[in-house]
Each structure stands twice: as C-alpha cells, then as structure tokens.
Design goal:
- The complex is a heterodimer of chains A (408) and B (254).
- Chain A has 408 residues and is an alpha+beta fold.
- Chain A has two domains: 183 residues, no CATH class; 181 residues, no CATH class.
- Helices cover 55% and strands 18% of the residues of chain A.
- Chain A has a six-stranded mixed beta barrel with strand order 4-5-10-7-9-8. A two-stranded antiparallel ribbon of chain A has the order 2-3.
- In chain A, helix 2 crosses helix 11 and helix 9 runs parallel beside helix 12.
- Chain A is elongated.
- The two termini of chain A are 27 Å apart.
- Chain B has a single domain, classed as P-loop containing nucleotide triphosphate hydrolases (Rossmann fold, 3-Layer(aba) Sandwich).
- Helices cover 37% and strands 27% of the residues of chain B.
- Chain B is built from eight helices and ten strands.
- In chain B, helix 3 crosses helix 4, helix 4 packs across helix 5 and helix 5 packs parallel to helix 6.
- The longest helix of chain B has 17 residues.
- Chain B is globular, with a radius of gyration of 19 Å.
- The termini of chain B are far apart.
- The chains are: A alpha+beta (408), B alpha/beta (254).
- At the A-B interface, helix 1, helix 10, helix 11 and helix 13 of A face helix 2 and helix 3 of B.
C-alpha cells in the first residue's frame, strides 16, 4: 500500500472524529508550546543577565579579602581584612596588564539634607573607579586627585539620593551641603542614571566620595580596604592580569607556596558565568516541567489510539478481510498518531512563540525563542507520536481478522 | 476431478477447536471442488461447520489439517501476508452484516480493496469503483454515506466492493440474513446476473428459498458434507420480483 494512500486513509479517519483528534492534539500543543515558552523565557533572562553584567565592564577585575581560619572554623569570603591600601598602590605600580586600579571602602550611612534623611551607601574610591565602572556624571564635575590627597569633603550622588533628599530627581543639588553620618559633604556632581542592576539593586542609590575622605573620616581602619577594583588592559589578557595580580599579592602578603590565597580575584566573566549557570539550571528546570506536560500529551495520544483501535476493531477486520496486511494496519495507525503529534507540534510551535511574545509584551520579561528550542520540542513531539502510537498500532495489526469481524 | 476449470479444490479438511478439555470438530474430513461459473449455496444448521468452512475458503482461517488448492496454488503453505494478498486480488467478500465502513461514502468504501493494491493508481481506482457501483445499480448513490442508504443498498455497496478487484470467486456469508424477502430477492437477482456473466459464487445461507436461486446446494451437518445436489427447480429472481410487484399492485387496487 502506498504511503500516499495510507496518508489519505489516516486523514479520513482523523477527519471523521474531528473533536477527538483536536483534543488529543491539544495535549501535544500545550506541551510543545510550554516547552518553547519556558525555554524562551529562560534564554531571555540568561541573555539579559549576561548583557547587564557585561555592561559593568567586561574587563574589570575585583579583588576581595579571602576566607579566614579562626580556631579551625573557616569563615566566608571577606570575613577578614587582608587587603591593604598599599596592595592597591602596588598593583597600580607593578602590574603591567592592569591599567586602572581603585581601592574601595564602602559603608552604610545616613545622609541628611534639611529635614530629609535617607539611609544609603557611601563608596570611597579614586577617580579610576569611575572609569572602570564606566560611570559618567550629568552635571557638575568629578572630584580631583587633589581632593583625594586632602581628604576633601566632596561627593558625587546618584539620582535616587537627589530624589530622596531634594524631593525631585531633576533638582540641582550641585554646591549643596549634605550631612553624611554627621560629616558635611559638598555635592560636586550628579551621576548619570543607571537604574537597577540584574539583581534588583538600585545602582543610583549611592554616594561616591574620594577614597581618602572615606578612609580617614569614616572608616575604622587606615590600613585595610574593603576591596580593590581594577581593569585589565584588554579582555583577551584578563586571565593573565588575574595571575599577575595574584602572584603580586601573594608576594606582598608573604604567603608560603603551600598557603592558600588570603584574597580572591574575580573577573566580570567569572561572575557572568556563575549567573549564567544559575539561569541555565532554571531554564532546564522550567523546560523539564514543561516536557512533563508533553509526556502527558503523549500518553493522551496512546490512550486515544487504544480507544480508537478497540472502537474500530470491526473496521480493522473488514480491512484485513479485503486484503490489508498486518503491516498496512500498523502503518495506518502509526500515521494517525504521527499526524496528530506533528500537527500538534506545529500548532504548539506557533502557540509557544505567540505566548513568548505576549510575555515579552505584557510581562516586560525578555524572551528569546531559539531555533534549537523549536527543533527540540518539535522533534520530541514527533518521537512521542511514534513511541506512543506504536503500541496501539501493533495491537491493531496483530488482530485476527475473523475475531475482529465478529467483534461487536 | 481432472477438470482444469475447477478453481477451488479442498481435500480432507479438518478443523478442531479446543475449549478446555473438550475438542470440537468443526470440520471433519471435508472435500469439495468448485468449478468456474458455479453458484453454490452452502446450507446447514447452526454449528454444522459451514461458517468455519467459509472462513477457510476465504483464506481468513487455517484448517488443522487438509489441503486447499486455489487456482492451482497451494494456499495453506502461505504466510499471513501472502494470504492477505490472495484475499485482496482473488477473492471478494460479502458479509451478513454488510461490514461497510461507517461515515465513509459508498465510493470510498468500494475503492477500499484497491487502496491496498499497489498496482492501481488513483484514476483507475475511481473508474473501477464507479463501474462496480453501476453494475449493482447504485450509480446515483455514489457519494451517499452508509447511514443514508437502506439495508439492501448497503449490501449492494458491499457487493460492489467485492467485485471491484475482479475476483475469481465471490464468497457470501449469509448475504440476505439481515434483509427482508423482497430485498433478498433483489440481491439474488444481482447474484444471478453476475453468475450469468461467468462469475463464480459461493454463498452460505440457511434460508431454503434463497438457496433455490443457486445452481448447487451443498448441505453440511456435524462438520461433514452430507449432500451436494444441483437445484432441481431453480428460481429466477427477476421473475420472482415481478410476481411480488404484481401481487402488491393487486393489493393496492382492491
């Protein structure tokens, strides 16, 4: 029997039970659509995370104090102070693959202007920090190395600070004096708006002051720093720069070859990879939940095909009596289930893409429909059609024509 | 027996069913030849083995032992697929309960056997099916669905389906069992016409008056053939129908 004839036979029989065929298909449609939508949402957030991390500067390097042993208990990262200001100065002076370095001291503070006050964070950095983080100012000017030297009480503020202390984002605070933990600071510039970062943190809720100012006037330590931010001269040599910094710091901290580092050097791509992995796990999780519905859809096909075989036992008997071979019957039922799963797969793809677009439009969530996810789910649905169609089809093909004809 | 015209020759057929410990001999040493152009009616009480015999003749069932030669070919040595091919190319089936596919037009039902024949294209298939429907007088009901057809018309679709692959023999298992006598005669009229054209027909029936339309009556009892006689006063279906028509006219004029 020609395949074309078989397709015709399958089409006729599906057409005879339109509603049932459609409901069976629905399982596959929902399965495929949810797999595609879930993968699209996962991929979208993945790319979003990567993009926003990359916007922090792909060749930046962050150095934080390492773990600390205390009575056999290993504390977490940054649990101790091991980085000194002179480490930052040494990196600036001696590391050839590093072009900008800034020590970073950060402190939670209360900022007050007039009758308004606002809890925020102050960062003590030098002007290299602004370059590494690609921070710009919308008005005023950046503080100078001279300000740093004399520990001048000047600062740059983010727009969130402006809004909370001056009541309006567009207010001009340049030249105004605010009190930060009781110390008066003169605002010399306003940072460009950055919005939230990937992790929902408001990047505009910040005060930036010269490092020396924060260190000498607010910090508890004149020797140690919270962290050091640096940037490599090029992205390609970022790992070499990390090695260079590590060996310099080991030397400066007088670590024996058997000692662990008492600091951690991370690059932006490390961080990006970590979050990439997290988002990949999320994607896999979402997709596997979605594929369960695809599996359930497949079982739905099997169920309907089994019912269909029983219901059409007589038809099978007639077909066999007039010359259909077992193989013909097998192929006929296989084609029916494959047609259901293929059609379901195609409709599911359309629905999945539509749902993804709707999520992007109304949910404000980034979605990326990849070709591979479409192919994957379609292939999966086709395999399900074959797999779950085979058993009922074989059952039909093995019927004895006499028994099938007598079946009521 | 040396007649080259005989198309079916069965010898010493035995069919035994086993239910639990009891053996039932549905066929007990049956031998028979059927010649080309014959119109045989197989008769017998329920359980006499006539249906089992029909199933074996129709290549739907295998005997426990015996010999079956169809057009000079040994049937029993063939596997399932070859049997399906034989059924498709050489045999035509008509059943008591019509057995046409529901929700499928008359034409599609008649086309069905040809769908399983690779040698026939779509155009030829349609042509043959239309011709077969015409030959049973259903040229105007080609696109009707089974539920729009009367029992007699459905049976005629089944006959057209049996004819469409130009079989060497038509096998009918109680073709009139579900029909009233007038419609039964109409079916017999078709059978007699086909037989006059040289088509061999074997028909199972338990109605004695239907058997009178055949040329030969074969009688089964307890799994054996106890008689195989030519019909003495063969009835002509066309004339019988005229009689009925005349009778009903008389009634309506009264």
């Amino acid at each position: 029997m020609r395949i074309l004839n078989l397709l015709k036979v399958a089409y006729r029989s599906l057409n005879r039970n339109k509603l049932r065929s459609f409901l069976t298909m629905l399982g596959i449609i929902i399965g495929v659509a949810s797999v595609i939508a879930m993968l699209a949402i996962g991929e979208g957030s993945n790319q979003n995370i990567k993009a926003s991390i990359a916007s922090l500067g792909t060749n930046s390097i962050i150095i934080i104090p390492g773990a600390n042993f205390q009575g056999g208990v290993r504390q977490g990262a940054s649990s101790t102070q091991t980085l000194k200001l002179e480490d930052a100065e040494a990196i600036a002076a001696r590391c050839e693959l590093v072009n900008h370095v800034s020590p970073v001291d950060q402190k939670r503070v209360q900022a007050i202007y007039g009758s308004k006050n606002w809890g925020t964070m102050i960062l003590g950095v030098n002007e290299d920090y602004l370059i590494i983080r690609s921070l710009t100012i919308t008005s005023g000017s950046v503080f100078t190395p001279a300000d740093d030297r004399v520990a001048a009480k000047v600062c740059l503020v983010g727009v969130t600070i402006v809004f909370n202390l001056f009541g309006d984002e567009n207010a001009n605070p340049i030249g105004q004096i605010i009190r930060v933990n009781s110390i008066p600071f003169k605002i010399v510039g306003v940072l460009s708006k950055m919005g939230q970062n990937t992790f929902g943190q408001d990047q505009d809720d910040i005060i930036i002051a010269p490092f020396t100012t924060v260190q000498k006037r607010m910090s508890s330590s004149l020797i140690y720093v919270n962290s050091i931010l640096a940037s490599g001269i090029s992205e390609d040599q970022i790992n070499d720069a990390v090695d260079e910094i590590s060996s310099l710091l080991r030397e400066k901290h007088k670590l024996a070859p058997s000692d662990d580092n008492d600091f951690t050097v991370r690059t932006q791509s490390d961080i990006s990879n970590i979050f990439g992995t997290i988002s990949k796990v999320m994607t896999i999780l979402l997709a596997s939940i979605a594929s369960i519905s695809l599996l359930v859809g497949g079982i739905g096909i099997m169920n309907i095909m089994l019912v269909s075989v029983t219901e059409r036992t007589r038809e099978i008997g007639i077909r066999m009596a007039i010359g259909a071979k077992g193989r013909d019957v097998l192929i006929q039922f296989m084609i029916e289930s494959i047609v259901i799963s293929f059609a379901g797969g195609l409709i599911g793809i359309a629905l999945g893409i539509t749902v993804s677009e709707l999520v992007a439009k109304f949910g404000g969530w980034p979605v990326v429909v990849t070709v591979s996810s479409v192919l994957l789910s379609f292939l999966f649905s086709a395999v399900i059609g074959v797999f779950f169609g085979w058993y009922p089809a074989r059952k039909a093909a093995r019927l004895n024509p006499i028994d099938a004809l007598r079946y009521e | 027996m040396a007649n080259t015209e005989n198309i079916i020759a069965v010898k010493n057929l035995i069919k035994t069913y086993r239910t639990g410990d009891i053996e039932v001999h549905a066929l007990n040493d049956v031998s028979l030849t059927i010649n080309k152009g014959e119109f045989a009616a197989i008769m017998g009480a329920s359980g006499s083995g006539k249906s089992t015999f029909m199933n074996i003749l129709g290549c739907l069932d295998n005997p426990t032992s015996g010999e079956y030669i169809l057009e000079g070919e040994d049937v029993l040595s063939r596997d399932k697929n070859k049997l399906a091919e034989l059924r498709n190319s050489k045999l035509g089936f008509i059943f008591q309960s019509f057995n046409i596919l529901p929700r499928t037009s008359a034409l599609e039902n008649v086309e069905l056997p040809l769908l399983y024949n690779n040698k026939i294209g779509a155009k030829e298939r349609r042509e043959k099916a239309l011709n077969a429907l015409k030959s049973v007088g259903l040229a105007d009901r080609v696109n009707s669905m089974p539920n729009q057809l009367s029992g007699g018309q459905q049976q005629r679709v089944a006959i057209a389906r049996a004819l469409v692959n130009d079989p060497i023999i038509i096998m009918a298992d109680e073709p009139t069992g579900n029909l009233d006598s007038r419609t039964s005669y109409e079916i017999m009229e078709i059978f007699q016409k086909l037989n006059d054209k040289g088509i061999t027909i074997v028909m199972v029936t338990h109605e004695a008056d239907i058997a009178q339309f055949a040329r030969n009556n074969i009688i089964f009892k307890d799994g054996k053939i106890i008689a195989n006689n030519p019909v003495k006063e063969r009835k002509n279906a066309a004339e019988e129908l005229k009689k009925i028509a005349a009778l009903s006219e008389e009634k309506s004029t009264i």
